[in-house]
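**User:** Everyone, produce a chain:

**Assistant:**
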Amino acid sequence: MISLKKYMKLKYLIVAVISLAFFLSVIVSTYFSYQGNVKFMEEQALENNRVYALKLSETIDQFIGDTKRVMRYSAAEIGEDFNNMETLQQEVNRLYSQENTFSSVVVVDANANILVNAPQNLGLVGSKVTSNEGLDVLKRRTAYITNPYMSPTGREIILLSMPVYNKEGIFKGVVNGTIYLHESDIFEMVLGRHPYENGSYVYVVDTNGKIIYHPDKARLGENVSQNEVVENLIKEKSGAKEIVNSLDQPMLAGYSSTERTRWGIVVQTPYDEAINAVGKQVSEVFARGLPFILLSTIFVFILATRIVRPLQSMAEIAGNSAQEQEMNKLKDIRAWYFEVFNIREALIQSFSILHGQVNTLKEESSTDPLTKLLNRRTFDKIIHLWTEQQKPYTLVILDVDYFKKVNDSYGHTIGDEVLQFIASKLKEVVDEEDLACRYGGEEFILLLSEETVGNAYSRLEALRKEISRLISPTGEVITFSAGIANYPLHGDQPKIILEKADAALYEAKKNGRNRVEVTNA
């Protein structure tokens, strides 16, 4: 029987052991880094979609509010001279053409007679309103928005109605604006395109779970009330959730309902698209580390070749070529003779390269890749730690004003540069013991260690004034709004401090933006 012992050379064994150690360490560190980053990207995508759905619901609420104000003005004008058909026709023509919102506009008297319509070729003048929805708005005598329904012309429509009263306060009828769901682009105009080119899309449902806007026009009118997210929306809930859509595709969904109409806004991103960047990131890190691993392996191979020479030569060569490094785990091994000591030192040198790559992976999992600030996950850990330690701090939430307009006007590349511009200024104002974090989207958070509210306000005011004087990457001045809360002055839990700082931020935006507000709680 052939013995392998005489063929097993020490240099090959050393190379094999070191290579295996490298390989296993890289695989393990890469796997756990990948898993951590996948979780982070899931959370980030869910939060981004939740925030975006909330902002879209606010946009629709604002649009509906503006439309109601225009219709209220028209109703007042019509009420001044309700019996003058020429005046009524002029006003509905103006409302139809000026707003570019409605597919048609009609004035109906209290007896359900259609008096005038726009466009004038609609041919409804002289007929009566017969639909249940049309008769219902006459009975309500208040501003009202219907759910989608089928009109007598066979179109699926949404009806916006405003009551008409004369000077004496007598109800005269209603002015109705209709939107043809399958023919109007109004939702496309209001919602716009999703800012992320990653397969994300937006759809809207009414209070009964019927789709009233979807990128796929074929799905308009479809009842999706059994969808888990839509069920939450019908219950007037908002949030974010990982779901499986009707096509059995895993999705990361954020959702919010509008206040005025109770419509539900859903923003969805395919799960695979959301985490696709993680694999690329980990692959890039691995690729950057691979040359170091190969160089280290070559180094060990050369060193092992020399070790098999006479022991005296091996010891001298190993002593001259290896540099001493700190590596506690290897130093715990008992080096009881000269040759083992030098081999151990060579291993320390080789493993230090790998640990550097592991540290790089850990650092990238704790920081935001765009701004290089701490990410939300790291922020959550630190604020809970400080609170458990009862360490006083002041928390500041910042939000870039009109950031959606920046993306819409200049593109997302400039939008990213604006976020980096703000991040660089935040780094300049924080002390060594303070923290600057990107919380999500265009929101940032500062944790100011053992700082008073007054000093924090002064620092933020100085930063706000400085930024409002600088030219941003857009070529124009940008501003931010901020809210401030203090632990333990304003609460004893991180969630409470965040909520109060966020409420202060809301006040800053409500009061005109480009402001710093302190919670009044």
Summary: The chain has 14 helices and 16 strands. The first helix runs from residue 10 to 80. The radius of gyration is 33 Å.
